[in-house]
Each structure stands twice: as structure tokens, then as C-alpha cells.
Amino acid sequence: MNTDAVFEKLKTSLGACYNINICNDADFLKVRCDYFEHAENFIVSRKANLWSADSEEFMYIFNVPTLTKEIFLSSIQYVESDWNNHAHIGPGHMYTYITPLFICENAEKDAVKLLKKYRKYKSYRFSFWGWSEFHTALVDCSNEKIITNRSGKCVRKSLGRIIHNS
Phi and psi for 131 in degrees, rounded to 5? Predict the structure, then answer.
């Protein structure tokens, strides 16, 4: 399976739940997928609101021929500066997951090592306003492997279902 086929599978599958935004801002960035969810519970009328929670996810899909350490670091730097422009942090915010996803033919060992060890977590107002967490993922088409950092295990399962079961 090549990178273009994987990218098209992901784009069509994620389009069912995510808002797909075509991007030409950064090198190798193809799309940004946005997901917003609002949940609330109330008694009798909406004025008697017990609780409400807003959840957000942003997935940045990069299509790279070979993932190098330099490409990984510059892409992460772009994502770290961009996702705040789209997030809604404040009262009622529960969580924001940010997932830079790299689709490549092959990856250098240094880049894979950085991807696996990458960790960024931030809480807002002692978690009263929720938290944000980075899940990094890599789809290596030459080995047909999906590699994630520790917090991205849930992403690995979802990507596996999308890529291998279609």
C-alpha cells in the first residue's frame, strides 16, 4: 500500500465525523481534521443545567516521502503554534487532543525514536478548564506499521481499523 492510498482512505473515513480542512500552510501538511463535541445534562428545562462539557480533537495529516528528524521537529513546531488558533479553552472545556499523523514510505530511526518519546500535556486552571494532550502517530507504508507515542495508543487502534479493514 502506498502513501496516497492510505491518505485517501483516512480522508474519506475521517470525513464522516471530522470537518476536513485542506491545508497549504506548512510543508507536507495535507489536511487538518477538526472534531467538536458538546455534551450537557439538565433537569426539566435547559435553564437547570447540571453540567456541560466541550471536547475537541485536531488531527494534522502530513504526507511525507521519508520522515526525518528535521521534518518531524518542524512539523511538530507548526502544529504546536497552530492548534491554539482553533481551540476553545475556557469554562466548560473538558479536553483537547492534538494528533500530528505522518504517512510515509519509510522513516529514519531518529525520527521514530523522537515520535515515540514525544509528550506534551497541559492542564488549564488546575484541570477545572480541562486539559490538552498530544498523540503522535506514524503510518510506515513500507513495513505496514503504525507507530504512536504512549498517549496515542487509542489512535493506533483506530488507524489500524481504518487502514487494514477497508
Answer: -150, 165
In the structure grid, which three cell numbers stand for residue 157, read together? 487502534
d(CA 29, CA 59) in angstroms, rounded, equals: 11
Got the DSSP string for 9-44?
HHHHHHTTTSEEEE--SSTTEEEEEEEEEEEEEESS
Pairing of strands 29-42, 145-148: unpaired
CB atoms near residue 118 (< 10 Å): 19
Q: How far lies 32's CA from each of 15, 79, 91, 131, 148, in Å?
A: 11, 10, 25, 20, 18
N-term to C-term CA, the chain? 12
Over its length of 166 residues, how does the chain's per-residue pLDDT go in tens digits? 788 899 999 999 999 999 999 988 778 999 999 999 999 888 888 888 888 899 999 999 999 999 999 999 999 999 999 998 999 998 889 999 999 999 999 999 999 999 999 999 999 988 788 999 999 999 999 988 999 999 999 999 999 999 887 5
> What is the set of domains in the chain, with CATH numbers?
3-41+52-164 (3.40.91)
Is residue 104 a contact partner of residue 141, using CB atoms and an 8 Å limit?
Answer: yes
